[in-house]
């Protein structure tokens, strides 16, 4: 994970950590991708690649769950970023997850939800992360919130079943 500092709308700085192995595309569709670090390209254009959650995600309020405050900081830092990450099959760790961005103890991660999706590139937009995190943040208990939900995501070629999660960094 590589630290990235952003200036929030209120003028304060926020730092999130971005998975340096993932490709990220930023800006308008007419701009060229910008390489942030080795193999990490933030792509322009579309910020939503995944649909609504069909049922409420599984929750985790245990002591090992991410801090809800850290998850809020993560979405605050992404607020002005438009774009998406492209995850390749080799970007996933041995536990099956690819941690995309994190702040403190909170990481937004994704993994393949079924064998038919495995092996295909996956795209996760900044608005996907903002939507899922913002929508479920009010569920936090005792300052903790871990989540896992399954959605369908388009990768510009086909629909994939993807499990997203707010996991401990």
TrEMBL record:
Highest taxon of the lineage: Eukaryota
A Pfam family this chain is assigned to: Hce2
Name of this chain's protein: Necrosis-inducing factor-domain-containing protein
Record domain Ecp2 effector protein-like: where: 50-153
Organism: Colletotrichum navitas
């Amino acid at each position: 994970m590589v630290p990235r500092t952003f200036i929030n709308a209120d003028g304060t700085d926020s730092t999130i950590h971005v998975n340096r192995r993932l490709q990220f595309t930023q800006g308008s569709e007419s701009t060229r991708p910008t390489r942030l670090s080795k193999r990490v390209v933030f792509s322009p254009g579309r910020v939503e690649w995944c649909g609504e959650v069909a049922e409420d995600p599984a929750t985790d309020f245990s002591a090992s769950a991410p801090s809800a405050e850290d998850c809020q900081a993560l979405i605050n830092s992404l607020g002005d970023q438009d774009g998406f990450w492209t995850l390749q099959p080799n970007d996933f760790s041995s536990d099956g997850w690819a941690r995309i961005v994190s702040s403190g103890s909170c990481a937004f991660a994704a993994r393949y939800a079924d064998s038919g999706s495995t092996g295909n590139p996956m795209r996760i937009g900044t608005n996907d992360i903002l939507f899922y995190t913002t929508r479920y943040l009010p569920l936090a208990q005792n300052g903790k919130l871990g989540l896992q939900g399954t959605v369908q995501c388009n990768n510009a070629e086909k629909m994939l079943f993807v499990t997203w999660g707010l996991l401990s960094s």
